[in-house]
Design a protein that fits this description.
Blueprint (H helix, E strand, L loop, with lengths): L2 H22 L3 E9 L2 E5 L2 E4 L5 E3 L3 E4 L4 E6 L4 E4 L3 E4 L5 H5 L3 E2 L20 H18 L8
Length: about 150
Amino acid sequence: MNIRGIATVLGLATVLGTVLAAAQEPATVARLVNLEGNVLVSQDDAMVAATNNERVAVGTRVLTMKGASVVVSYDVGCDVRLKENERFTVRLGECGVLAGEVVSLGPAPGAIGGGLGVPEGVSPIGPAILTVGIGIGLYELFKNPSVSPN
């Protein structure tokens, strides 16, 4: 094989390698815009900091931390807005359905660590006292008197 043949084979190998690498990377379908605060995106098995105008592919998880927000702006014209402490997995679908798939990451009211679910502007002291009172009442009702303290 002469030099020209070797160059041709190497050139074809380079083009083929580029095509294969591009085929292995998922195509992006949206970009992150209006990014404010700490926003994370999944990358392989880890979460990394997102950047404004970053392209994202189907299957990418987007998470907003406290005080953060971002818009997942699909190439087809659909915008999915995330407020603080929300999660969204990029996928294809109808815009209204996609917007409804944003998940809140905050604990539910009444859950351990989730607060009391008291409306804003209302003091949580009354519900807290009621909760403690109910807990003590249930303890007294169901405690086993036959257990010896010794």
